[in-house]
Amino acid sequence: MRISVISGSPKGEKSVTLQYVRFLEEAFPDHTFTVIHAGRDIRAIEHQEEAWNGLLAAVKDCDGVLWATPVYVMLVPAQLKRFIELVGERDVEGAFSGKYAACLTTSIRFFDHTAHAYLHGICDDLGMRYVGFCSAHLEDLRNEAFQEQLILFFTDFLEAIAERRPIQRVFPPLPAPSSPYAPVTPPAAVDTRGRRVVILHDTEPGSGLAAMVGGLAACYGDSVRVAHIRDAAMKGGCLGCCRCAFENTCVYDDGFLAFWEEYVAPADILVMAGTVRDRFLSAAWKQFFDRSFSNGHVPAFAGKQIAYLVEGPLGHLATLREVLDGLAAMEGANLAGIVTSESGETDAALHTLAERSVRLADRGYIAPPTFPAVAGHKIFRDEIWGGMRAIFKADDRYYRQHGLYDFPTRDYRQRIVTRATSLAMSIPAVRRDVVKNMPDYMIQPLEKAIESSRVLAKRKAER
Asked: Is 443 exposed, middle or buried (0-12, 13-18, 19+ CB in 10 A)?
């Protein structure tokens, strides 16, 4: 069979992901693999007709498409995102329609599921028959047990093609674009109480998103700064070179760092505004997020209020919402809200967002983390300690300085109590008593916390 491999890595032949593809080529010598370097060659693909026509021919002639890509900031790299946008812009979905597809990703398995869901949705939109995915850790290819699983994954993919296996669509089609937002009532000003507010956007003049940005900016009044992300003058997307790992300094010599320091770093309230392109925001926004990787795994939005303005069907894009939520939570920020163009109450929603973001910033509220942020931080902690710290020096320093290498627990009193309790549980009579009275034992320390709370005492004294 002829397999078109669409590589999302900007590193071309030096791609870690592509080594997994090379392994498959060795394991399946009776099949032909044609690699399309969508990540590496995106500029040529975008501007050179010969390059574009060549890759389309490869897709049209193949029996199956393997999306092979690293995961960059919870999704595919911006370069591959731009390639997918071009397919829609140039109306060539027919080249992909009916093709069997699968995806192979490499990462530290941090939000790899959102990258898979995005590619699955794209395949459904293109009329492809999505068979499944394989998520590999960067080092998994060194493990023979994983090699066996990789072969089984690809065998299933080939069998699906050979059998013309029926594949049901999972992600429903997106609704037709609604009418662009247009303000109905004049925005009411909000007292920002000295908070520094920044709105970043990628609007087109006269668009609904531009109207939303203007409406929200008017709510914040003179305290807001508004900037288009093109003003960052980025020369390109993240290269995956990891040369930023030593001192959190990007290899690019362009305007991104100065833009970040001028707008993002000092903001108390940061609003990011974008339009849905396929199933995410634009490739320009994805490039902005990817380039922020030069901050390493140090929370770049720590203590800030984050908000989003989204033009498009966000209500139908659970994966996009999960990424937007995750970006705020993983960076140590609070998600103050998301306003979309979907409802008929956008004017009121913009004012509410402005008022709430200021109120939360004034109070210093950061929502407690949920599973994605807690699990994500543990993944980073273990990966950096386990081997990445040899290269990611800046991250290692930050983790040491902030006590994030918290295993095993340094609470020695707790360790002693846990050990003693564990030994006591080996005594049958003690175990029976604990089992019988477990609900009481579980709430006892919490009852004591309520009784001795200085926070509650302070509130009572203030009444």
From this structure: exposed
Closest by CA to 319, choosing from 65, 41, 32, 119, is 119
DSSP state of 268: S
Question: Has residue 81 got a pLDDT over 90?
Answer: yes
Strand order in the sheet with 129-137: 32-37, 2-7, 64-70, 100-107, 129-137
Each residue of 225-268: pLDDT tens digit?
Answer: 999 999 999 999 999 888 888 888 899 999 999 999 999 999 99
Mean pLDDT lowest among 38-47, 99-108, 436-445: 436-445
Nearest to 291 by CA among 329, 324, 336, 259: 259
For β-strands 129-137 and 224-228, DSSP reports them as unpaired
Residue by residue, DSSP assigns 337-386 as EEEESSSS-HHHHHHHHHHHHHHHHHHT--PPP-HHHHHHHHHHHHHHHH
Amino acid at 57: A
Cβ-based neighbours of 283, under 8 Å, separated by 6 or more = 78, 79, 81, 82, 85, 277
Rounded to 5°, angle at Cα 331 from 325 and 335 = 40
Q: Which residue has the tokens 């070179």?
A: 241
Alpha-carbon span 275 to 204, nearest angstrom: 10
Position 94 confidence tier, pLDDT thresholds 50, 70, 90: very high
Average pLDDT over residues 405-415: 78
The pairing of beta strand 64-70 with beta strand 100-107? parallel
* Element spanning 402, H or E: none
Residue 410 pLDDT more than 80?
Answer: no
Cα(202)–Cα(393) distance, integer angstroms: 33
Of 26, 48, 113, nearest to 318 by C-alpha is 113
Contact by Cβ (8 Å): 81, 74: no
The predicted pLDDT at position 340 comes to 95
On the CB side of 451, how many CA atoms lie within 13 Å of its CA?
6
Residue type, 322: E
Taking residues 10-36, what's their average pLDDT?
96
Check: CB of residue 66 under 8 Å from CB of residue 157: yes
Nearest to 324 by CA among 312, 309, 313: 309
Find the Cα–Cα–Cα–Cα dihedral 61, 2, 45, 37, rounded to 10°.
Answer: 180
What are the tens digits of pLDDT across the range 315-364? Answer: 999 999 999 999 999 999 999 999 998 877 899 999 999 999 999 999 99
Closest CA relative to residue 201, chosen from 279, 278, 277, 285 = 285
Q: Is the pLDDT at 69 greater than 90, yes or no? A: yes
- With CA atoms as reference, report the closest residue to 105 among 211, 17, 38, 229: 17
Indicate if the pLDDT at residue 412 is higher than 80. Answer: no
